[in-house]
Amino acid sequence: MSEVQPARPRPDLLTWAIRGAALIGVAAVLYVIASASIKPAEVLDLNAFKRGELAKLEVPKTPAAPTTAGFTDADGKPMTLADFKGQIVVVNLWATWCAPCRIEMPTLAALQAAYQTQPVQVVALSVDRDADLQLAKSDIARNAPLKLYRDPGYKFAFAIKPRAAGFPTTIIYDRQGRERARLSGGADWNGKEARAMIEALLKE
Questions:
Q1: What are the strands of the beta sheet with 120-126, ordered from one edge?
Q2: pTM
Q3: SS3 assignment, position 177
Q4: CA distance 15 to 105
Q5: What is the 3-state secondary structure (H, E, C) of 50-88?
Q6: What is the Cα gyration radius of the chain?
Q7: Is 64 exposed, middle or buried, given 0-12, 13-18 or 19+ CB atoms closer than 10 A?
């Protein structure tokens, strides 16, 4: 006499369907969360600040990567823009023989003073020759809290794209190190337009 195998219970199709739907739902939620976390942040359009003192502001269509060209501090220590990672950097290319440069320098000093406790760094980058180093130091000393940085061989000035058309040239980099705007010629960098632009970049 053969044994009768006990009947196997039939799977509860409804239970499996519910579990499957739940798993799909969880996967969808995780996908949405992951997509949101890697979605690039919206980039502020700095064209909105092209008025008044910044009417000649040039804004690239897309934020541009910074040059890796080097420069030095006043003591000759090699530096690059990467040394200011995480800060808004205002690079001002200037020279002691450039009258508009010397006129706007106090406004750059005032801008730096206003943001001493925030991640904003004004890099006054002199293109003067070594023979004029003391003169450049004297000009910066009259415009504290600015510090002197040097590019006597025009390596930085010519490496940026497009290269500096003249002096002064001021370039604005955001906290990710991307070029966001530049201005050829003098401006009041402590004016309401410049302050508003810096404030907007700080909020990004």
A1: 78-79, 71-73, 148-150, 120-126, 88-94, 169-173, 179-184
A2: 0.79
A3: coil
A4: 74
A5: CCHHHCCCECCCCCECCCCCCEEECCCCEECHHHHCCCE
A6: 28
A7: middle
pLDDT at 38: 47
List the beta bridge partners of residue 78. 72
CB neighbours of residue 159 within 10 Å? 16
Q: Going residue by residue through the chain (204 aa), what tens digit of pLDDT does each one get?
A: 545 555 555 556 656 556 655 566 555 545 545 444 444 457 789 999 999 999 999 999 999 998 999 999 999 999 999 999 999 999 999 999 999 999 999 999 999 999 999 999 999 999 999 999 999 999 999 999 999 999 999 999 999 999 998 999 999 999 999 999 999 999 999 999 999 999 999 999
Instruction: Write the DSSP assignment of 93-148 as a string of letters.
Output: EE-TT-HHHHHHHHHHHHHHHHTTTTTEEEEEEE---GGGHHHHHHHHHTTTT--E
CB atoms within 10 A of CB 201: 20
Neighbours of 84 (CB within 10 A): 19
Residues in the chain: 204
Closest CA to 152 of 126, 180, 121, 120: 126
Give the number of other CB atoms < 10 A from CB of residue 155: 13
Residue 74: name the closest of 167, 137, 153, 10 by CA: 137
